[in-house]
Amino acid sequence: MRLVAGLTLVVQGIVGLRTEATLGQVMVCVLATSAGMLLLAGLLTPIAGALAAVVELGWAFAQPRDPMTHILLVTLGAALSLVGPGAWSVDARLFGWKRINIGNRKS
Description:
- By secondary structure, this protein is an all-alpha fold.
- The protein has helices spanning 2-18, 23-41, 45-62, 68-83, 90-95.
- Helix 1 crosses helix 4 (68-83), helix 2 (23-41) packs antiparallel against helix 3 and helix 3 (45-62) packs antiparallel against helix 4 (68-83).
């Protein structure tokens, strides 16, 4: 999930930078590309996922012709910021892999 979202963000950012754009559009493309690169590496995943969700939400409203890809990436970014990086990431190597154990609830 992290790799697909990261790769899509990097590709969208690079395609956006290749077109003639205003300064605001260039900044959004740079933010999308950097969030995608952070997601690909698995570095600062919760922050990169939240940044990806915000950038894609902005693109969904700015480009209303086909918002489905942007809506999908908003969902993936929000999910990644809540779930975390996973076992194969730089975050897991630096900070350890977090595991959630849900025990039985006794009434």
